[in-house]
Structure formats: structure tokens, C-alpha cells
Amino acid sequence: STGMVGKAVLLECIDDARVKEVLLINWNPLAISHPKVKEIIHKDFMDFTSIQDQLIGYDLCCHCMGVSSAGMNEDQYAEFTFTITKQLATTLHEINPDMVFNYVSGTGTDSTEKGKTMWARVKGRTENMILKMGFKDAYMFRPGVIIPERGIVSRTKLYNLFYIIARPFFPLLKKMKSVTTTTNIGKAMINSYYNSQQLKFLEGKDINDLAERK
Prior knowledge:
Number of helices: 7
Strand content: 5-15%
Structural class: alpha/beta
């Protein structure tokens, strides 16, 4: 919940009356105080068994953690992207297979796992692993351009530079069906729990559509 998408989901969960409780799992504290919100500071994302008992009883997981592949080889990127996700998903599935699991991927992800683009292969392998895990339901969020709202900023300097330059064009960008917003991603994450659907790979337009459902 310390990144741009994670913060967006958190804000929408706080505002949505259907959400009764939110559990954050972070490396570093977010320093937020709200009656709905609990936080676990967990330093070893390769092993969630030590906090497993605190994860029982939740209906929806919004896995929003992600890192840039810049400067990483495939093994390094896979450790942060595939391995951590597998450890979390495996732990959650063991204690609550009826959970809905949402994963933030990205447009251009390679479901064949055989393409030339490294990050797309790793993301595709991660998506496929989640979908085969056996959760009650699972959705792969594949946003492209995301417009930040509600004061949210990206932790990636390059993205922030883009947003500063593109800000005057935000109203025009929002009219494009392929473009989504942090608000819509948060709303769509929540609505996925209440609106089971066959489409499991959600691009920008699909995210916006799901955000409108109740």
C-alpha cells in the first residue's frame, strides 16, 4: 500500500461502506490511522508463514506490489515479481481458498511466457501461476497509462516526470478508453469481489467498466 496503485486501493477501501476491514502488509509503516485499517510490518516477503494466523478470514487480496525491471536481469526481476507473489498466494490459498485474488500486472504482459520482452514473460508466468492456484476467483489487472488522482504520486521518478509534463492533457487522456485512473483501479478491485466475470485479464477499458459496477 506504499505505492501509487496500493494507496489508491486503500483510499477506495476506506471510503467504501461495503469494506469492513483492511489489512496492510508492508515492509515499512504507512503511518495511517483509521478504524478500518490494520497494518503488519513484515520484513521477509519470501516467507509469510510467521504471520499466517493474522491473514485468516479475509475475502479479497489486492496484490499491488511491483518493481521496475530496469537494471535487473531476469532472475532478479523474477524474485521480486514471481517468487514473492507465489509465496503470498500459496499462503493465502492454504488458509482461505474462497478468497478473490487480484494482481496488478501491466498492459503487454506475455501469457505465453516465451516472448522477447523479459518483464512481460515474468509477469505472464506470475499471472498464470495465480490463475492456476485455485482461488474462488482471480483477476489480472493490466493497466497501461494510469492517471493519478486524490493527491497520489508515483514512487518512480521517471513516472512522476511524465505526470508533471502530461498534467495539462489529463482531461483529454481521461476520454481515452484505454486510459484508467488510480480511483478506477481501486473501485474495480473492490467491485471484482461482487461481480464475478469470465474476463480475467483486465486492460484499461475493462478496469473502467468494472469500476462502474456495484
